[in-house]
Amino acid sequence: MVKGTSASAGIGIGKAVIVEEAELIIKRESVSDTEAEKNRFQAALKQAVEDTEAMAKDLAKRVGEQEAEILNGHVMLLSDPMLTGEIESTIAGESVNSEYAIENVCNMYADMFASMGDELMQQRATDMRDIKTRMQRILLGISSVDISSLPAGSIIVAKDLTPSMTAGINPDNVTGIVTELGGKTSHSAILARALEIPAVVAVEKVLEHIKEDDEIVLDGSEGIVIVNPEAAVKEEYIVKREAYLKEKKELEQYIGKPTITKDGVTIELVANIGKPEDVDKVIQYDGEGIGLFRTEFLFMDRTSMPTEEEQFEAYQKVAIAMKGKPVIIRTLDIGGDKEIPYMGLEKDENPFLGYRAVRFCLDRKDDVYKPQLRALLRASAFGNIKIMVPMVTCLEEFREVRQLLEEIKTELDEKGIAYQKDIQVGIMVETAAASLMADAFAKEVDFFSIGTNDLTQYTMSVDRGNDKVSYLYSPLNPAVLRSIRYVIECGRKEGIMVGMCGEAASDPMMIPLLLAFGLNEFSMSASAILNARKLITGYSSQELQAVADKAMSFVTVKEVEDYMKEFVSHS
Which domains does the chain have, with CATH numbers? Predict the structure, then answer.
């Protein structure tokens, strides 16, 4: 048995098919006619764009528009004049072949993205390498591996799967995916989940452990891969797979049901989204609103800032689609770890503690922040929009945002432009400072939303992207739990809504504790909503008080985890 990272839930049983792309040998060659070489590059670029658009169209038809957006993002990268211009400049300036120019320029961008330490940027590095290889294959006349027509019962085993390769998989024939590289948030993992194919990633030296036609059992929920299992083990997982599929089917009965605990406490169960297109999934899984709309996605994968009108249209679209249900939109959260070239940001030595989020926005009021706030206010006339300010550490920052909003409201009034007069403005509680000052903040903000990913990172002083210290990263750490409980207490005392939009909101071990603490709103990925509803409706928040008290009496994360695992397994 080998262990990896769970990327897509479910049990996969089948024969290993090793997928290895032929390694491209890229040599530097001198060219005398650089104009002809640039034309050669443009022809390959045109072909790559057409191929990618065709894949995106096919994926939209088979899976959904939301998933097709991943490949549409590749089209945007291929069409970026900054990227293509730099490749052409390299061809002309150095009199080199297209393959070599593509290699240098795309690697430079990919390395830049990869060095940022942010999950989103890491994914863009993978996307950049994917489009690089696609263009080079066209130029070299080498076809990519066709995994669309594998035999039924195939388990794909690879060093890595690019988004374009994953998009071509036929889920009727592929029962699982195992890779050496990749993470839970990679585009390939997202596509595997959309295709409902169990997947385990980050399995060390996977191609040494598994050979062609080996029998494989993989548990995508636990991150386990078993090679050539004994008959009894295989039978055990066949039973597990049937139970998993049955449970998945049963979750559909929770569509349309209210999220109320056994003792009558109503919970708001909402979703995190990154793009307007994601709303389709929220509606599909019966989300009761949007708990986090990450607006930085509107600013990425482009060469200039989105206009106020473009932002207004995106926010308006989500507000209308949710038909009066709450839509919490987070103002721009970028900085040293999420570099956007046209913003002119300098690289921070320590991006997570640097010039980012509200700090950046308040410094760039006129060209960045005011247009966004104006777009948000205008869109609020079309639905129940709430504004959330990220990375707040002191009350002065929040008061300055409030003041800006009041100034913009006055401008809109003078022009007779409609907006929600009493629009709610809250903060994302994700810093230790905001947590410690939650009592003061609760008197001035309209709501709290706890961002456990960063709150855990800052409370524990641990870089969540660093494998060497990842053992310290857990929302079940007593220090983090004390912080969360205090924030909720402060919010409830002042009568404001307290939500959570970090990954912990859908964690089965966290849900009982959060209910006992009195959390009002749980926000998570849309696909996790029905399971969370099932769990929440099965608990009594009153009965959970003793469980929470016991959990909070422990002083190590292991004690808390062991206790909560035991409780959840018997509840």
Answer: 2-20+146-230 (3.50.30.10), 34-140 (1.10.274.10), 264-569 (3.20.20.60)
Structure token pair of residue 34:
């650089």
- Secondary structure of 261-309 as H, E, C letters: CCCCCECEEEEEECCHHHHHHHHHCCCCCEEEEEHHHHCCCCCCCCCHH
Instruction: Give the type of residue at 468.
Output: K
Q: Count CB-CB contacts under 10 A for residue 543.
A: 15
What is the rounded average pLDDT of the residues 460-488?
Answer: 87
* Alpha-carbon separation of residue 3 from 124, 162, 285 (angstroms): 26, 21, 30
Q: Percentages helix, strand, coil for the chain, rounded to the nearest 5?
A: 55, 15, 35
3-state per-residue secondary structure call for 478-530: HHHHHHHHHHHHHHHHCCCEEEECCHHHHCCCCHHHHHHHCCCEEEECHHHHH
Residue 150, pLDDT above cutoff 70? yes
Q: What are the tens digits of pLDDT across the range 100-109?
A: 999 999 999 9
């998993």: which residue's tokens? 244
* pTM score, whole prediction: 0.72
Catalytic amino acids?
187, 501
d(CA 46, CA 439): 57
DSSP assignment of 305-333: PPPHHHHHHHHHHHHHHTTTSEEEEEPP-
Residue type, 194: A
Q: Residue 562, Cβ neighbours under 10 Å: how many?
A: 12
List, for residues 478-525, the tens digit of each pLDDT value.
999 999 999 999 999 999 999 999 789 999 999 999 999 999 999 998
- d(Cα 68, Cα 299) in Å, to the nearest integer? 19
Which pLDDT tens digit goes with each residue over 386-417? Answer: 999 999 999 999 999 999 999 999 999 999 99
The CA distance from 316 to 183, in Å, is 33
Side by side, the strands of the sheet bearing 224-227 are 2-3, 224-227, 215-219, 11-19, 154-158, 174-179, 199-201, 5-8
Q: What is the pLDDT of residue 118?
A: 59
The answer to whether residues 187 and 123 touch, using CB atoms and an 8 Å cutoff, is yes
Structure tokens at 297: 């996605």
Residue located via tokens 């996790």: 528
Greatest CA separation found in the chain? 79
**Three-state SS for 77?**
helix
Strands of 171-241 (E only): list them.
174-179, 199-201, 215-219, 224-227
Residue 489 structure tokens = 């207490």
